[in-house]
Write a structure and sequence with these properties.
Blueprint: H1 3-28, H2 35-58, H3 65-84, E1 89-91, H4 93-104, E2 106-109, E3 112-118, E4 124-131, H5 136-140, E5 147-151, E6 154-155, H6 160-167, E7 174-180, E8 188-193, E9 195-198, E10 202-209, E11 212-217, H7 225-239, E12 245-249, H8 258-266, E13 274-279, E14 286-289, E15 302-306, H9 313-323, E16 328-331, E17 339-347, E18 350-360, H10 376-381, E19 395-398, E20 404-407, E21 415-416, H11 424-431, H12 442-448, H13 461-473, H14 480-485, H15 487-503, H16 505-514, H17 517-523, H18 526-546
Parallel strand pairs: 11-12, 12-15, 15-16, 16-21
Antiparallel strand pairs: 1-18, 2-9, 3-4, 4-5, 5-6, 5-7, 7-8, 10-11, 13-14, 13-18, 17-18, 19-20
Helix pairs in contact: 1-2, 1-3, 7-8, 8-9, 12-15, 15-16
């Protein structure tokens, strides 16, 4: 059998194996299939193989292996799964490997965040957004804004995924990277030795105000998320024994591993309190509780910040803390992903994430947002948050102390925080890469070519004068009114990007967080969180007496 035919047969077999898993889970484990059901399933599978055979033999162009893989991996399997729900998904070999890397919380490489960016002539190059502290790239002196020109003597492609693949490799191996840096006449060559690169879920934490800690949880994808969260809290306690509050930032957190979400909630709830339950047709209900519980060490008011892209495991944590009156939830109504996917390994390097359960908060709220009769685009990107939640449009439940909460459409915050939209001038500066949202833009690269900055940096009139001159030299439209109306935003971006380039990603993130209007607003709710904490203590004392 020719290799191409053998590989095509494997792809079709993989599709049929996926069908078998889906069929068994949605049918056989619920009830025995009738003879007519089994016959219909066989007929459907036979029809698929007949269609595939006709396509392979008669399509206008020969089907090479890439097209076959695309037809199966990107077409047939996802198409089948998306008929069921928006979140069941298939992992091809590349995606499956990435998922396992995320779960382990590390990989072997050089430690850079990169993205494609066009130069003045419109040619796209991959640019360093930031280097991670302690990694080979950081130690070698690679800077945010450096342009990657070649890797091991080969021209660097303009695709960041391809560049990332070239930079990764076995631990201890060398990779030579040639960079171009503004202000340097000649390219810079770096001989880097690949090492284990941590990929933490709790990507940064610090004391945002005296006695108040801030923790940003990027996702729950790593098997170390719970431990990282605990380490951050212990660090706060050791540095400042008189902790008076905590802000947990879950904005944009897409979720991840259920066990890690339970572990994080366990650190803040009382032993025995329910964190989440999951219910499905094919499996018995499972209830997850705080098995250890907090011992009083972390007993301080908590504000959790969420937004429309807070999803899944992050909603489990938010919902549990809200239902038990342990934290004040502020921000926007969350995404509403309460479908649980179980990952089934189909072959050595592919997997099927199939919805098997629904998530429910401790009060019994369904987290999942309705998705029937919606296109995938509308489900993921179009949401109407204008209608205020009430008994007419969402299910109503009560927290431990009797507060009203709503389910069936994500986690509704206790206090809403409006997200400021970028104005025309701000959008223009991002579009022209004057600023970059998570790295270093063109102005900061230009400024650092002739200046150094210290930790006592103040964005004063002299820095602003250079900024205005830079905009003019690069033909960026701006007026004095534009600068005046956006002055605080401009100063914050300049300082954050200069700190990122000079002192590393974490220092830049601290600057951004300290000037973030949503976080500033969240901090004003700490008194309400304290009142909720007192209310929670009263509820627990009453429960203890009742027992």
């Amino acid at each position: 059998m020719a290799p191409r035919t053998r590989r095509a047969l494997f792809s079709v077999t993989l599709f049929l194996a996926t069908c078998a898993i889906v069929g068994s889970l949605i049918s056989e484990k619920v009830a025995a299939q009738s003879a007519s059901d089994e016959s219909a399933l066989r007929d459907s599978l036979r029809q698929f193989t007949d269609v595939y055979s006709i396509v392979e033999q008669n399509y206008a162009q020969p089907l090479d292996q890439d097209k076959i893989d695309k037809a199966i991996y990107d077409g047939a399997i996802p198409g089948m799964l998306h008929v069921l729900d928006p979140h069941s998904n298939f992992y091809d070999p590349k995606a499956f490997a990435q998922m396992r890397e995320d779960q382990h919380g590390n990989y072997y490489g050089v430690g850079m965040s990169i993205q494609p960016q066009p130069d003045k002539n419109g040619i796209v190059h991959v640019v360093v957004l930031t280097t991670f502290e302690g990694t080979p790239a950081f130690k070698a002196g690679i800077r945010s804004g450096d342009v990657i020109m070649s890797i091991d003597g080969k021209p660097a492609p303009g695709d960041s995924a391809e560049v990332a693949s070239m930079l990764k490799g076995p631990k201890g191996t060398h990779v030579s990277v040639v960079m171009v840096r503004e202000g340097k006449d000649q390219p810079l060559t770096f001989d880097l030795v690949r090492d284990e690169i941590p990929h933490p879920s709790v990507d940064f934490s610090f004391m945002i105000k005296p006695g108040i800690g801030y923790v940003h949880i990027l996702n729950f994808s790593s098997e170390t998320t719970g431990r990282e969260f605990s380490d951050a809290l212990d660090k706060f306690q050791a540095a400042n024994g008189d902790m008076r509050g905590l802000v947990i930032d879950l904005r944009g957190n897409p979720g991840g591993l259920l066990n890690e979400a339970v572990d994080v909630a366990d650190k803040l709830l009382q032993k025995g309190q329910v964190v989440v339950s999951q219910r499905g047709r094919a499996f018995p209900e499972q209830v997850y509780k705080a098995t250890h519980g907090e011992d009083g060490t972390y007993r301080y008011p908590i504000v959790v910040v969420v937004n429309r892209n807070t999803a899944s495991a992050a909603e489990i944590v938010s919902g549990a803390l809200q239902d038990h009156d342990r934290a004040l939830i502020v921000g926007e109504t969350t995404f509403g992903k309460g479908l649980v996917q179980t990952v089934f390994q189909i072959s050595e390097n592919t997997g099927l994430a199939l919805t098997t359960y629904h998530y429910y908060t401790p009060s019994g709220r369904l987290i999942q947002r309705p998705y029937d009769h919606l296109s995938l685009y509308d489900y993921f990107y179009v949401r109407n948050d204008a209608k205020k939640p009430d008994q007419s449009n969402l299910e109503v439940k009560l927290t431990d102390s009797g507060r009203t909460v709503y389910g069936g459409g994500g986690i509704t915050p206790d206090e809403k925080i409006d997200v400021p939209d970028l104005n025309r001038f701000q959008e223009s500066l991002y579009q022209q890469y004057i600023f970059v949202s998570a790295g270093v833009g063109n102005f900061s690269k230009h400024y650092l070519a002739t200046h150094t900055v210290g930790r006592d940096l103040v964005v004063d009139d002299e820095v602003l004068r250079e900024f205005k001159d830079f905009l003019k030299a690069n033909q960026v439209e701006s007026t004095d009114a534009d600068i005046a109306a956006n002055l605080d935003w401009i100063k914050s971006n300049i300082k954050a990007e200069l700190f990122t380039a000079q002192f590393g990603q974490l220092e830049g993130l601290k600057v951004r967080t300290q000037t973030d209007p949503e976080i500033s607003k969240a901090l004003t709710f700490m008194p309400e969180a304290l009142a909720l904490e007192d209310r929670s203590k009263g509820t627990q004392n009453t429960a203890s007496v009742a027992h």
